[in-house]
UniProtKB/TrEMBL annotation, chain A:
TM region(s), chain numbering: 56-76, 101-130, 151-175, 181-200
Organism: Jannaschia pohangensis
Any Gene Ontology CC annotation: plasma membrane
KW Aminoacyl-tRNA synthetase (keyword) present: no
Compartments reported by the entry: Cell inner membrane
Cited InterPro entries: PqiA-like (IPR007498), PqiA-PqiB_transport (IPR051800)
Name of the protein in its database record: Paraquat-inducible protein A
UniProtKB/TrEMBL annotation, chain B:
Pfam families membership: PqiA
InterPro entries with a match to the protein in the record: PqiA-like (IPR007498)
UniProt-recorded name of the protein: Paraquat-inducible protein A
UniProt entry keywords in alphabetical sequence: Membrane, Transmembrane, Transmembrane helix
Transmembrane regions: 44-68, 96-120, 141-160, 166-186
Source organism of the structure: Jannaschia pohangensis
Amino acid sequence: MDGTGHGAENLKALTALDAGLVGCRHCTRVAPLGATICTRCGGALESRDRTSMQRVWAWWLVGLLFFIPANLYPMLITQTVGRASEATIVGGVIELAQHGAYGVAGIVFFASIIIPVGKFIAIGYLALIVRKPHGHKPKSLLHLFEVVEWIGRWSMIDVFVVAILVALVQFNLLATINPGIAAVCFALSVVFTMLSALSFDSRRIWDQIETIADE
Amino acid sequence: MEAGDDLVCCPVCDALHRVGEVDDDTRVRCIRCNTVIAVGRPEAILRIVVLASTALILMTIVVFYPFLELRNGIFTSKASVFQTVMSFSEGVMAPLSIAVAFFVIVLPVARLMALLWALFPLSIGAKPLRGARTMLRWAEILKPWAMAEIFMVGVAVALIKLADLATLSMGPAFWSFAAIVFITALKDTQMSKHSIWTALDTAQRT
């Protein structure tokens, strides 16, 4: 507790549940097991969220469903002097790369393809592990969830880029940019996967890490 | 073990800790998952209040002044953050317009105001306002949904996409927005759930 402890070495700890207490995730106060409302901040208390997995899978599935049209339909519709061209997410990345902006192309590719796909895999993997843990190395699970939870929001970059382009490029006949249907699908997909990650009770992953470390 | 004031549970992994007085300029981390549990900074509340009010004032500039200006020969197009937000306002895209408005303006502002509501009285040594606890809880819940910093990266990407199409210049709102992103990040490093809630508890009791 001196601020130098590293999680990777201490996989076992006395949890609030072990001690017959329930901790508040909003304000970190502990209450006796069975309390439903935190006396300090008024938040809901539950030692281990029992319905969390259902919500995780429901949001995960909806997010995945919206991710498919998000990649098939155009994100941007550009009209320049009578010619209209459409660009999907991947198309936009290729276009950036052709302009020589490899760094930006990399950021957009990472934010709109790698992060969402990685997130679907990571949440699915964690949700399966929590149910049936065997043969996994605890260290590989340690901070996977935190990374997933933190990085998910950054997928919104592409939606904001579309919004900025649409607002700026309105030169009537010369050039106009309009949003495509994929922008909506992609934004929804990001929101749903964020909700999926937020429904996850990280304390259950740590329970499993402890169990696996015991084996 | 009894529930008491010094007993703290890690919000991420549920490990119990007994945290007493925290020394200045030290961080107490969870023994298991390394999450920061308490920060020993006596002026943390004051700093959060100052930074949050600065960000809130800059936000008014952001909404009302031009954000980016685009010139292509004789054509000029100016966009404020408000226009950017409204760019999806037609037809099926309208819900997206509302969502972008929430992520970029409404939620960041709501979060700053909730924080100030809860913590401003503490910084001047007054009694907390009614509903301070609820406000503080909501400030934390809203955290992942306030996406101002992501919007900034989006601006950078858009600038490069347009670089060969037209000349771009940044308006005052752009720099205010950049400052807000920086200030908010600075503010969040000062925050630790346990320390703030303990401060609110102490203020409520006296």
